[in-house]
Design brief:
Oligomer: heterodimer
Mean pLDDT of chain B: 85
Largest sheet of chain A: none
Strand content of chain B: 15-25%
Helix content of chain B: 25-40%
Order of helices and strands of chain B: HEEEHEEEHHHEHEHEEH
Low-confidence stretches of chain A: 1-15
Largest sheet of chain B: 6 strands, mixed
Mean pLDDT of chain A: 83
Bound molecules: adenosine-5'-diphosphate, magnesium ion
CATH topology of chain A: MetI-like fold
CATH architecture of chain A: Orthogonal Bundle
Number of strands of chain B: 10
Helix content of chain A: over 70%
Low-confidence stretches of chain B: 1-12, 283-288
Amino acid sequence: MASTDQVNAPRATASRGWITSGRVSERDTNLIRIGILLGVAAVWEAVSRSGWLFRDVVPSLLAIGASIWKLLMNPAFYANLQVTAWEVFASLVIGGALGIFVGILIGANRFLAAAYEPYVYYLAPTPRIIFFPVMIMWFGVGVASKIALGALSCFFTVALSTAGGMRQIDKVLIRVGNSFRATPWQMGTKIYLPAMRVPVLNGIRLGFGTATVTALLAETKLSNQGLGFMIMQIYARFDMPSLYGLLIIVFVIAGLGNLILGKVTGTSD
Amino acid sequence: MSSASTAAATRPATEAQPQLVIDNVSKQFGEGPEAVLAVDQVSFNVMPGEFVACIGPSGCGKSTLFNIIGGLLGEYVGNVMIDKERIAGPHPAVGMVFQEESTFPWRNVLDNVCFPLELQKIAKSERQDRAQKFIDIVGLQGFEKRMPSELSGGMKQRVSIARTLVSGPQILLMDEPFAALDEQTRLLLGDKITQIQQDLHQTTLLITHNLTEAVQLSDRIVVMTYRPGRVKRIVDIDLPRPRTSDVVSSAAFGKYVAEIWGDLREEASRGMAESESSTATRGKSARG
Ligand SMILES: Nc1ncnc2c1ncn2[C@@H]1O[C@H](COP(=O)(O)OP(=O)(O)O)[C@@H](O)[C@H]1O
Ligand SMILES: [Mg+2]
């Protein structure tokens, strides 16, 4: 596992100069990424075998691999995944739609912006999890309270980036549309929407992230299904390999989700 | 400036009707002591196929006049007439090219130029054919699939011009389209504009503060005063056509420049003095 020649891979790139001006090629970045991953794996395995730490805290990669396999074979995993995926999806749809709507209102209307923007800015960085008890009282301990909380966090992210996008539209483009006598519908679809596309889609992508984090976090607090709940179940059994395995799976799924969303919306970096 | 306006009115020796009539147009921004009279009783005509430049120092109300003629400033005093119709909103006969960079950054060159045809719901193949014609005219063939971010300032401005021309305006209205460009690019683009105007017999009103550009391109130059913007003088430019940018080195060209500069210098220095004193006293009308 800890083969040195593979860990050396990034150094080959580095020898061309650490300070790279201009664009780093995608191949180089990928090499560095793989290198870092392998490096972490090597250190992990070394620590695990050294016996310095209590064995179960840092289980061997083999054990983690086996537990990942076992999880992927486990129907309960898929049931929980489905619940969490549904929560994130519903949060994104509800919070995203409301966020775009309110964002456009705030962005388009100076008075609304002056009146409500301070609240949005104060509330936006507040950890949403503190609203969880309220959501439980309103929507119960089931899926609905997680969706509500996820939608809430998603809402702020999307509303802020939409309002920002609306305000940064180049005014001359609107005058161009008017000078060609575009109808209001044409102005909306051919100028406003495309001009705001990047900030809005970026907001949705960020919203996906916050919705995922919020849903998982809420599940670990109080729930009887979902991946967050599963993590806490495994934790209660102190089954460390499965815990790490599940974390890796969640990490990969979230990463894939972000990647797919980036590809679909054309905002991937 | 009644003498100037009568000169403009009596000018058509031919039978042709003016394509654009600007009759006693005034525009004031704001009310009371804060009010700025941007345009004051401006009158002149533009004949079919004619190239007229409107020149004046910065802040003299050129863009205001541009926006009035383009129908983007609904409220004004006096009349701007096209086909005996008073302008009160964007008119299909007028095509505008803006001072600012105005290509759509999310559309490639071809799709930018197609934009006005898209609004008119013209079929895709036809609008691409028509757009291609104007891309060729402004000399951007081969760049159809490029995004504006990949183009130079001069090329982007040519995209804007092609986009306006493709809509088939009777009157092309341009507000300092070359202001952001360097002098060489400006002269060469000027050639392009002259050529377009001659090939298409495009009636054009060019707003500019650049004297060389105005004389190089125009049949007639309307010189404006600094605030309030009035017509100071209208000068006929009898330089031979077809013209190229070489004309700037001719003696006749120099004579026109010197003559108009005499008028313009007065206004420009007035403008400079005023803006200096207004910045000194933290002036009220520092907008624009
Ligand atoms: N929307 C507006 N509100 C108030 N004042 C304006 C507005 N637009 C232009 N002005 C004022 O009118 C005058 C003429 O402006 P403008 O037409 O832009 O001049 P130019 O294009 O010749 O530089 C300036 O003093 C400017 O401050
Ligand atoms: Mg201007």
